[in-house]
Amino acid sequence: MVSPVRSFARLFLVLAWLLPILAAASTEAAPRAQRGVIVLPAGLTQPSGLQGDWGFSWGEFVDPAWQQLPSNAFAPVPSSWNDISADGKPPGENGWGSYMLRVDCPAGEQLAVEAVGQRTASRLFVNGELVAAHGEPGPTKAKSHAAIHTRIPISREFACPLRITLHVSNFEHRAGGFVRPIRVGPADLLSRVRESRIISQAALLATYLLTAAVALLFFAVRRRERTPLVYGLFCVAMAVYTDVIGERLLLRGLPPQLAWGPYMWVEYLSWLAAMGLFLLTLRGLFPAEIHRRVAQVVLGTLTLAGVAVLLLPPSVYSYLALPGQAAAVVVALYMAAAMVKANRRSPFDARVLLAGMLAILVTFVIDLLLIDTPGPDRKFAPFGFALFLLSPAVVIARRLSRALTAEERGRTLEENARLREDVERISRHDLKTPLNSILGVTFLLREDPRLDAEQRELVGVLQRAGFRMLEMVNLSLGLFRMETGTYEFSPQAVDLRELVKRVLVDLHPAADGAAVTLHLRGSEAGPVRVRAEELLCYSIVANLVKNAVEATDRGGQVTLELRDGDPVVLTIHNTREVPPDIAARFFEKYVTRGKVGGTGLGTYSARLMARAQQGDLHMRTSAAEGTTLTLTLRPLRDALPVPLAQDAPRVSAAEAVAGLPPRQVLLVDDDEYLRLVIRRFLPSPPFHVETAPNGLVATEMMETRWPDYLLCDMEMPLKDGLETVRWVRAKEEAEGRPRCRIVMMSGNDDPATAARTRAAGADRFLPKPVSRELLLATVRSLEAGEAAPALPSAIIGSTPVWDEKPSWLEDEPEPATAPAPAAVPVPAPARSALPELTSTPADELVTIDPEWMEVFPGFVRTQRDTVEAIAAALAEGKREDVKFLAHRAAGGLATMGLHWAAQHSRFLERRALDAAPEDLQLRITALREHLARVRIQPASS
């Protein structure tokens, strides 16, 4: 790809070569008038321009019937008289005077004159006869009436020689005098040339208007596409501007003379509008490359210029022409550079628009350089815009083509959309509902005191597998929302450094098994907070680190480095190169090779999740440097909620319902297994629970027995949850029934679903699966009359935790691919809040639920072994192992209620890398002595 600087350098070299040719062509070197006389050859085959030195009389309207040139002063034509001093004219644009020219042509020939209007009022005479008038020139502004003719007249033919006189006055424009050239020739020759110009102008005008009509029609059909509307208005503005500075075909139906003021308004406002709409068109097509702030500045400037045109006289606002065209060139350069940049993302569209942009740039530069040279009415900008017209038209036409194709296949797309909705419904309901039942049953089984330790372990494995599958379903739904642009990003304050450390701890067993070392540079630094979602970040980092471990040779190392800044950067490096055929499509779907069980969705979903959080993910690979993945995220600048652990305090059902009065509960769900599970969650007393398979049966049951609580699924056949809730609230209002407390449940965990349930009249919304602790806590909050909490955020994998992971599974690390939310460790307290080393309690009495009694002795032995392993690692200088083992110990000890030991384990984890060895040894000794004196007693059931 050629660099922008080189492209523009080449462009200006072309301009430097082209402009002298254009200037030479515009001056039409022969023939030229000298001292008020021009000599024309016989038999003209092309109209001849009457440029050169004309006789000039300042402050006088000479008699047009002169026979001898009535002045000895001369002025160049065509040119403004602002700076000439002929016949005593002072500098400036305002004033009045006469131009005279004798045209010597062969005797017997007859020639006509093309009468072009001047700025701002003029009368043209040939051989003493008035042939054209544009307003009424006068010696003062009050007596001068500026006007424009709706067409350019051609006079009748006069016998040679010709005596041409032009009376001009200017009080309303920045450039006065004889500024627009006139031409002579046989009348039929002038008419033929005029007709060709009219045909060309009409074709250009029709192209603008037809393209505008198509674009506006496209917008009328597809209103969500705003770019065709802006583009259509741009074409209209350009049609008006092109016409008023050309043949004025749109004015033919009006009177021959138009007032100068309104005409100038139309010319300048259409010009300003075209520039603004041109910018908006490109911004609509390439919003990422054309910055919003630049567009705002340009549009604000054009708006001020438009206000100036409306409020100021033409003599003032006509000065906008020169700086306006210069500013247009600068903006065109900026947008051309933006198109070069856009070439990387959308090469076809960018190159098409860049070609149109270059056409505009060339013509604007030409107009800028030739604006006050002979022939200023020859404007190239309309032709440049005509070329540009093709470029966005091609881009928008592609959209229109796709839209028309989509309309033709509308029925097929509707069927596909229904199929997609069915697949999503299956994921949410048909898969998640029985999965919720499985998880509920495993929870109930674990409460059975008849199970021995081995059976509990098997149930725990089943429960963890269920959670893992639920996470996969939630993740697939989140990715679907990201792909379709419907994912709602709910930013939180995430400490990326702590999250990375947690990932490394969780993947430590997998790395050990592969004989790969995990190393985080700068791990002693403070928190690095980003604006993100914790579980999305965990999924990204865990996926990338796991892939890096699998791609590293045995004995190798995976290095992570975290750099604070804007943006925050996390790099993950391994020494292996990604094969070239894979590297080119590294982030595409289903790209994988040589990986057992690989789906090719890991890096694709990781970058999708990064971009959903307004970040990005890039890869660099080579044989010499290995492979580096770079994750960028936005730093935290504003106050945001900090992710909280979702684990509810573990209490027995009896404790949870203590003190509650008897309540009648109606449970409505179309899944029989889930009804069985949730019914078991509600102990009797105080609850008397009845069940219904759908809303229709539920409303029939409520006619005879009105419940205190309605626990209702959202998606059910016959009558769904929302309809049922509305029926309940309407019944209460119409018949004065006591208010029923309604808890709505759904597998959809997005804020929109929660809002819909609240709007229908539900008191609470709980995403499935619902834990016993959360359900009973919700009932207690309703009994206490507490206000409903804020609506939940849509977070991938935010599966509510049924129960904390049993501590007897701590020795069995979670698979690295899909950590269950319950396994996410609670962040350790800040260093300043860590406990001082005090004498350990003589003993500690720990209250344990009966279901854990058989497990606890083995758990304590395991923790004692862990402390010894920490001591051995410290003795060998393996600080990373000390940190890892202390982290595992802290989580297990806190789960079992050994809080003093958990606190000091967290101290070891925090200070493992930088504390003095003797300080760490004191903590280890204290832990060892403390665990030797732990006593237990069973909790009352």
Automatic annotation (TrEMBL):
<dbReference type="InterPro" id="IPR003594">
    <property type="entry name" value="HATPase_dom"/>
</dbReference>
<feature type="transmembrane region" description="Helical">
    <location>
        <begin position="265"/>
        <end position="282"/>
    </location>
</feature>
<dbReference type="Pfam" id="PF02518">
    <property type="entry name" value="HATPase_c"/>
</dbReference>
<dbReference type="InterPro" id="IPR008207">
    <property type="entry name" value="Sig_transdc_His_kin_Hpt_dom"/>
</dbReference>
<dbReference type="Pfam" id="PF07695">
    <property type="entry name" value="7TMR-DISM_7TM"/>
</dbReference>
<feature type="transmembrane region" description="Helical">
    <location>
        <begin position="228"/>
        <end position="245"/>
    </location>
</feature>
<feature type="domain" description="HPt">
    <location>
        <begin position="848"/>
        <end position="941"/>
    </location>
</feature>
<dbReference type="Pfam" id="PF01627">
    <property type="entry name" value="Hpt"/>
</dbReference>
<feature type="modified residue" description="Phosphohistidine">
    <location>
        <position position="887"/>
    </location>
</feature>
<protein>
    <recommendedName>
        <fullName>histidine kinase</fullName>
        <ecNumber>2.7.13.3</ecNumber>
    </recommendedName>
</protein>
<feature type="transmembrane region" description="Helical">
    <location>
        <begin position="319"/>
        <end position="340"/>
    </location>
</feature>
<feature type="transmembrane region" description="Helical">
    <location>
        <begin position="352"/>
        <end position="371"/>
    </location>
</feature>
<dbReference type="Pfam" id="PF00072">
    <property type="entry name" value="Response_reg"/>
</dbReference>
<feature type="region of interest" description="Disordered">
    <location>
        <begin position="803"/>
        <end position="827"/>
    </location>
</feature>
<keyword id="KW-1133">Transmembrane helix</keyword>
<feature type="domain" description="Histidine kinase">
    <location>
        <begin position="426"/>
        <end position="637"/>
    </location>
</feature>
<keyword id="KW-0472">Membrane</keyword>
<feature type="modified residue" description="4-aspartylphosphate">
    <location>
        <position position="713"/>
    </location>
</feature>
<dbReference type="Pfam" id="PF00512">
    <property type="entry name" value="HisKA"/>
</dbReference>
<dbReference type="InterPro" id="IPR008979">
    <property type="entry name" value="Galactose-bd-like_sf"/>
</dbReference>
<dbReference type="InterPro" id="IPR011006">
    <property type="entry name" value="CheY-like_superfamily"/>
</dbReference>
<feature type="compositionally biased region" description="Pro residues">
    <location>
        <begin position="816"/>
        <end position="827"/>
    </location>
</feature>
<keyword id="KW-0732">Signal</keyword>
<feature type="signal peptide">
    <location>
        <begin position="1"/>
        <end position="29"/>
    </location>
</feature>
<keyword id="KW-0902">Two-component regulatory system</keyword>
<dbReference type="InterPro" id="IPR003661">
    <property type="entry name" value="HisK_dim/P_dom"/>
</dbReference>
<dbReference type="InterPro" id="IPR005467">
    <property type="entry name" value="His_kinase_dom"/>
</dbReference>
<dbReference type="InterPro" id="IPR036641">
    <property type="entry name" value="HPT_dom_sf"/>
</dbReference>
<dbReference type="InterPro" id="IPR011623">
    <property type="entry name" value="7TMR_DISM_rcpt_extracell_dom1"/>
</dbReference>
<keyword id="KW-0812">Transmembrane</keyword>
<dbReference type="InterPro" id="IPR036097">
    <property type="entry name" value="HisK_dim/P_sf"/>
</dbReference>
<feature type="domain" description="Response regulatory">
    <location>
        <begin position="664"/>
        <end position="783"/>
    </location>
</feature>
<keyword id="KW-0597">Phosphoprotein</keyword>
<dbReference type="InterPro" id="IPR001789">
    <property type="entry name" value="Sig_transdc_resp-reg_receiver"/>
</dbReference>
<feature type="transmembrane region" description="Helical">
    <location>
        <begin position="198"/>
        <end position="221"/>
    </location>
</feature>
<dbReference type="InterPro" id="IPR036890">
    <property type="entry name" value="HATPase_C_sf"/>
</dbReference>
<feature type="transmembrane region" description="Helical">
    <location>
        <begin position="294"/>
        <end position="313"/>
    </location>
</feature>
